[in-house]
Design a protein that fits this description.
Length: 306
C-alpha cells in the first residue's frame, strides 16, 4: 500500500471519528473549543502540522526555476514575501474583497487534493465543501468567525449566502462522491469523509482536521515522492523546511506582537487566517504549476498516481 493510500485512509478514519463526535458530544465540543485554550490548541495544530507543507515550496523553487545561490534565494524570498504582504494590505484596506478572495482561492487550492483522474466537477465540489458545508448547520458560528475578519453585517450576509447554497452543494457532493467511487473508491471515500467532517464538526475543528490531516499531509507525501521518495528525499525535505518554518515563526511572533492590543480570540483568528491567506497566494503560484503537470518532475515525466 502506497504512502498516499495510507494517508488517505488515515484522514478518512480521523474525519469519521471527529464527525461522529460532532454529533454525539456536540455541546461538549463547542464548550471545549469555545474557550481561549481550545482556540490556542487549534491554532498551534495549524501552525505545527498544517503550515509546514508550505515550507516545502523551496523544493519547487529549485526544480522549476533553478533557484540556487544566495542572490537567487534573496530574490525568491523577496518575491514570496511581497506577495504575502500584498494580501495583508488588501485585508487592511478591503476586508470584504480579502475574505471572498481567500475563500475562493482556498476552495480552488483544496481541489488539488484528490488523485489524478478525478473529474473537474468532483474536484470543485470537494474543494468547496470545507467552505460551504459548515454553514448548513453552523450558520451563526460561521458568521461569528467571519466577523473577526470583516464587518459583522458583511459576515452575516456571507454566512447566509453559504447557508443557502449548502443544501444543493451537499447533494451534488454526495452524488459526485458516489460516482467517483465507481472508478476510484478511495477518492469517493475521501470526498464523503471531508463532506461529513465539514457538515457535522464545529467549523474551526473541521478546518483544522482537514487542513492538517488531509491537505497538509497529502502535500507533504506528494512532495516526498516528487523529491525522490527515499531516505535522501526525507532528509532533503527536512532541511528544506527548517529555515522557512523558522522564518514563519518569527513573522508570526511579530504579527502577534502587533495584534497584542486586540482581544485574544480576534487576534488569534486574524493571525491564523490572514497569515494563511498571505502564505497561500505565493504557495499556489508554485504548487499549481506542479499539480497541472501531474506532479511530474522535469526529469521524470510520468504522473504521480496512487
Amino acid at each position: 500500500m502506497t504512502a498516499l493510500r495510507i494517508q488517505g485512509l488515515l484522514f478518512c478514519a480521523i474525519a469519521a471519528g471527529v464527525a461522529a463526535a460532532g454529533v454525539v458530544v456536540a455541546d461538549a465540543l463547542a464548550l471545549a473549543l469555545g474557550g481561549t485554550t481550545g482556540l490556542l490548541v487549534l491554532a498551534a495544530l495549524i501552525l505545527l502540522l498544517g503550515v509546514p507543507h508550505g515550507a516545502l515550496d523551496i523544493v519547487f523553487a529549485q526544480e522549476l526555476y533553478g533557484v540556487h545561490g544566495l542572490r537567487h534565494w534573496c530574490g525568491f524570498t523577496l518575491a514570496y514575501l511581497s506577495a504575502g504582504l500584498l494580501v495583508v494590505l488588501i485585508w487592511h484596506t478591503m476586508p470584504q474583497l480579502f475574505l471572498l478572495g481567500f475563500l475562493l482561492l482556498s476552495a480552488l487550492h483544496f481541489s488539488g487534493d484528490p488523485a489524478p483522474g478525478t473529474s473537474l466537477v468532483a474536484r470543485l465540489l470537494y474543494g468547496g465543501a470545507m467552505i460551504v458545508l459548515p454553514a448548513l448547520l453552523h450558520e451563526n458560528e460561521m458568521a461569528r468567525l467571519f466577523a473577526f475578519l470583516v464587518l459583522p453585517q458583511a459576515a452575516m450576509l456571507l454566512a447566509s449566502f453559504l447557508h443557502e447554497i449548502s443544501w444543493p452543494w451537499l447533494l451534488a457532493t454526495a452524488l459526485a462522491a458516489a460516482w467517483q467511487s465507481r472508478t476510484h473508491w478511495l477518492t469517493g471515500l475521501e470526498m464523503a469523509a471531508a463532506a461529513a467532517l465539514a457538515l457535522l464538526a464545529p467549523p474551526l475543528l473541521a478546518f483544522t482536521v482537514f487542513f492538517c490531516a488531509m491537505h497538509g499531509a497529502r502535500h507533504i507525501v506528494r512532495t516526498w515522492h516528487y523529491a525522490g521518495a527515499g531516505a535522501e528525499s526525507t532528509t532533503r525535505l527536512g532541511r528544506a523546511a527548517l529555515l522557512p518554518m523558522l522564518g514563519t515563526l518569527i513573522l508570526g511572533g511579530a504579527a502577534a506582537y502587533g495584534l497584542r492590543a486586540a482581544p485574544l480570540e480576534a487576534g488569534l483568528m486574524q493571525l491564523v487566517f490572514v497569515g494563511l491567506a498571505a502564505l497561500t497566494v505565493p504557495h499556489m503560484a508554485l504548487v499549481e504549476q506542479v499539480r497541472w503537470s501531474g506532479w511530474a518532475r522535469r526529469d521524470a515525466p510520468s504522473p504521480l498516481n496512487r
